[in-house]
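Predict structure. Chain length: 126.
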Amino acid sequence: MSDPILRKAKKRVKQKKGFYVHAGVMFAVSCFLLVLGLIISITEKKGAILPMMVPIAAMWLSVLIHYVSIWGIPGIAHMGDNWEAEELEKEYLNLKRLSNTKKNLSDEEYLELRELEARYKDEDFV
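Prediction complete.
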C-alpha cells in the first residue's frame, strides 16, 4: 500500500529528524570550540576566542539555512507543495474575471477614463 500522504509524512519526519541531529551536533561542536578557545586563551595568554567565533557563526548559519529549508521563514508564507496550484488558480480566476469584464464592455467604455468623485471642497485649498 503506497499512500502518498503517508509517504509525504515520513519524508517530513525524516527532514525534521535530520535538522534536530544537525542542530545537536552543531551545539556540541560549538561548545567544544568555545572550551578549546578558553583553554588556549588561559594557557597561552592569547585571545583565541575570537578566531573560534568565525567557524561557529558559519556552522550556525548552516543550521539556520537547514531550518528555513524545512519550515520556511517564520511570518512569511511558505511555498509548500500546494503553493503553485493555489497561485495558478488565483491567476486563472483573476484573468477570467478580467476577460469577462472586457467582454461586457465596448471598446469605448473599456478605454474611457471616468471622472473621479470629488471628496473635497474648493474652499479647503489655499
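Summary: Residues 79-113 form one domain.
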